[in-house]
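Let's do one together. I've listed all components of the complex below, 992 residues spread over two lines.
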Amino acid sequence: MKKIDKLILISVVLISLFGLLMIYSSSSVWAEYKFNDPYKFLKTQGIFVIIGYFIIYIISKINYQIYFKYSNIILLGCIILLILVLIPGIGSVRNGSRSWFGIGSFGIQPSEFAKIGIIIFTAKYLTNNKMKDIKHSVFPILSVVFLIFGLIMLQPDFGTGIIIVVTIIVLLFVSGVKMNFFIKLGILGLIGIVALIIIAPYRLKRIVSFVNPWADPLGSGFQIIQSLYAIGPSGLLGAGLGNSVQKHFYLPEPQTDFIFSIISEELGFMGVLIVTTLFITIIYRGIKISIYQKDNFAKYLSFGLIFSLAFQTILNLMVVVGLIPVTGVTLPFLSYGGSSLLVSMINIGIILNISKQ
Amino acid sequence: MFNKKIHKRIKITLLVIIFCFILIIGKVFYIQVIDYDKLNNLANNLWSRNLIIGANRGRIITSDNVTVASNLTTVSLVVIPNQIKNKDDVVKDLANILNVDEKVISEHVNKRSSVEIIHPEGRQLSFDVADKINELNYEGVYLLKEGKRYYPYNTLLSHSIGYVGIDNQGLSGLELTYDKYLTGVSGAIKYFSDAKGNKLEKSSIYEEPTNGMDLYLTINYDIQAAVERELNNVMDKYNANGAWAIVMNPNNGEILALSSKPDFDPSNYKNYSTEVINRNHAVWATYEPGSTFKIITLAASIEENTVDLINDTFHDSGSVNVDGARIKCWKSGGHGSQTYLQVVQNSCNPGFVSLGNKLGKEKLFKYINLFGFGEKTGIDLNGEGNGILFNLDKVGPVELATTAFGQGISVTAIQQITAVSAAINGGTLYKPYIVKRIVEPNTGEIIEETKPHIVRKVISNETSRTVRSTLETVVAYGTGRNAYIEGYRVGGKTGTAQKVQNGIYLTGNYIVSFIGFLPADNPQAVVYVAIDNPKGITQYGGTVSAPIAKNIMIDVIASLNIKKSEYTLDKEEFWYDIKYTEVPNVIGLTIKEAKSQLKKLTINYSGTGNIIKSISPEPGTIVKENSTIKILLSN
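Okay, and this is what the predicted structure of the assembly comes out as:
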C-alpha cells in the first residue's frame, strides 16, 4: 500500500486556510453591518473547515471500493433528497432557489452531493459497460444524468446542473466513446442554445452583458462591473490585505461567488497567481493519480471527481474575470458556503484514498 | 491498448483545463494592464465623493487695468447625510443659524444623496454665519469655499458685461459669450466612501480649483465713467426715454466706451425688467440716423468726384420737389445760395438731395453698403441689430432723396460709428471689438488676442482727409458748434431723426444725436451720442447731444493725453457769408512757384531758404479765406 498524495493534501489545507482568511477579509464589513459581528462568516466557515478536515481524514481511510458496491443506493439517496428539497416546508429558498435544507445558518445543498453520487454511478457504469454501442450504452447513462439535471433545474441551480452534465460528458469522452457522438452532441447543444434564446430573449441580454457589462450597468452587468472594479485597479501586489474598497457594499456578498475579485483587489496579480497555482497543483496531481490507476473504476472515479472540481473552478473564475456570463457557481475551498466546502473535501478524501492504491 | 486511448483523452482534457487557466490569468492581466486606466478611473469615481471647491471666475478688466468684474470669497453649506449622526440637532441648529424653517433643512439632511448642497439658503454665506456653523463642529456638515461675482462699479458697462446666476454661470453679455473662458475648473476634496456613503479610512485627495481666464477689454475706464456720468445726467435732466453712446478708436475698431441707458446693476439683475437688461441700445436699437448719415453721402460724393465743395453752389429755397413730394429744409425759408461746403455746415436737406441726385442711386447705395450698413458689424457683444435699407430695385427718386440725408433707412449706433470711423481714418472700415485679450491669470499667458480686423478699404486717403476737414468746419462754423473745444481740432456732425412707430412719424419725438472726433487732422477717438426723446428742450442734435459729446471728448482728451493742436479753426457765431479755401499742396515748390496758389491766404514764413518744406495746417485743410498759415522754408 502506497502513501497518500501529500502534495494534494498540503495544497488543500493551504487553500482552505487561505479561504478562511479571505472570507474574513471580504465579509467582515458586511457581517458587522448585518449581524453586528464581523467574525460571523469566519466562525461559520471555520467550523465547516474543521469538519472538512475530519471528513478528509475519515474518507481517505474508507476504501473506495465501497462506492462501487453501493453506487446505486447512493444515487437513489441523492435523487430522493433532490425531490425532497423541492417540497416547500422541507426545502428552503435562498437567493431565489429552492435548493437548501436549512438548519439555522447552516445550509445543506443536496445538489452538491448529487454531483458526487452521479460521478460514482457513472464510473461504475463505464467500468461495467463497453461504450461501443451508443444506443445501448451511452443513452441509458445520459438519461439518468438528465433526470438529475432536470431535478436540479427545478430548484433552479443552473451552475451545479451544468457541472454535472459536462463532467459526465467528459467522462464519456475519456472512456472512449466515438468522436462522432460528441460532434453531434455539440451541434445539438448549439441548436438548443439558439432555441432557448428564441424562446426567452432576455437570456441573450444576459449573454451580451458579459461582453459589454456597461450596456446594462445596474442590471445584468452589475456584478461583473463591480468585479472588474475590484480586479482592474489592483495592480501587481494589490491594495493590501484588508484594504479592498469593493467589499464595502459595492460588490454584493463578496465572500461568496466573487471572492476571487476581492483576492485580486487586495493581493493583486501575485494573489491571482498563487491561487491559480494551488488549484493547478491539485488538479494536475489528481489527474496524475487517475492515470496511474490500474482499476478502471478507480480511474474513472478519480478523474470524474477531479474534473468536476477543475470545471467548477474554471467556471467560477471565468465568470469573475468576465469571460463568460454569470452562472452562480462557487469557487471550491475559497467561497463561503458549507455544502460546497464539504463536498469538495469529500471529493479530495476519495481521491486521496485512491491515491494510496 | 484500451488504457492508452483513455490516457490520451485524459491528457487532452488536462491540456484543455490548463489552457482555460492560462486564459483566465491572461484575462486578469488584460484587465489589470490594458483596461487599468479606464477601470481605475471608473472605480475611483465610484468610490470617491467630491466636495466641490468653486473656482474663481475670471476677472473682467479694462485696458487701463481697472477690474470691473471680480469675485468675493464666500462659503456654502454642504451636508453629507450619511455622516450625520444626530440629525435632529443638526436640523435644529442649522435652521436657527440660517433663519429658515426646520423642514427645509430636514429635507436636505434626510435626503438619500451622497453630497447635498443646501441650496439656495446655504449658498454664499457671510463669514459670521459661516463661523457660527463652524463652531458647532458637526460631523457631515461642511463649509466649502465659493466665489461670488462682484461688480465694484455697479451699473458701469452693465450691458456689455452682463451678469451671472447663483452658480456663477454667465447668463448675458460678455459673461455669457465668454463663459467657457471665464468659468474655471472646480476643485474638490475627494474622500473615499463605501456604497452606503460612509467615509472610508482612505486618505482624502485635495484637487486645487483652476481659476477662470481674465478678460481684458478695449474699454478705457475713465472714458467709460465719463460716458456713464454724462448719460445719467442727460437722463435726469431731460427725462429722456433712453440714451446711448459709444467711443471708438477709429484706427483699429477698439471700443473705448459703450453705454446704454436705462441700464441695470448686474449684482441685482433680478430687480430689473428683461427689456432693460436685454436692450443694449448702442448695438441693438435700429432707428433713422438723420443728418449724421449725411457724412456717408458726403464721403461718397467726394470719392466719386461729383461735387466741388468749395466752388460748386446750391440754392436752397426752403424745400425741394422730388417726384411730386415736397422735401423741406429744417430751416424754414431755406439757406439761400450757398457752396456745398456750407450745405454740409448748415446740414441743408435740399442740398443733400442734390448731392444724392448727382451720385445716382447705384453709387450712393454702393457706398452705403461698403460702409457696412444693412449688416451686423460683427462686434463681440450679443444682441446686435441689422438695420434696414431700401431694396435697390425699389429705390425711386423719393427714396434716393431721403436716403441722401438720412431718412427712410434704419441703422444701429455701432454701424454709424464704425462707418464714420472709416470715413475719417483714411478710408479703412474696421470690425469693432471690445475684448482685447484673454489671459491665464497665474502665468499671464495670453490665450487669445484680438487683432484689429480690416473689413475693407472704402474710400481713398485724400477723400477721407477732405471729409475730416469739412466736418471740422461743421463744428467750428456750422451746426456742431456746441461741440467746439478751445485749442483742439474737433470734427463732427449733428443728427435729428424723427422716430417712426408703426410706419408713421411721431411728432415732437426725436432721437437727437451727434458724432464727433478729434483731433481732426489725426483722429484718435470718435464719439457717438444719441438721446431718445429728451423733454423740455428743443429737440436738435446740436443743442442736446453736441454738448454731451463735448463733455465726453474733454474726458477723452485727458484720458488719452491728446495734445493741443498748434492750429485750430476759430469758432464763428455767424458763418453764412464766410468764404473758404483749401490749403494747397505746395510742399517742395519754391516761393515763386507757389505764389499763385497761395494768394487767398495770409502767409507767415519761418526758416530760411527758398523751398517750401512744410505747411501748417496740412494741405487739404479747409480754411477761411485770408486765414494765416505757417510755411517753413529751407534750401
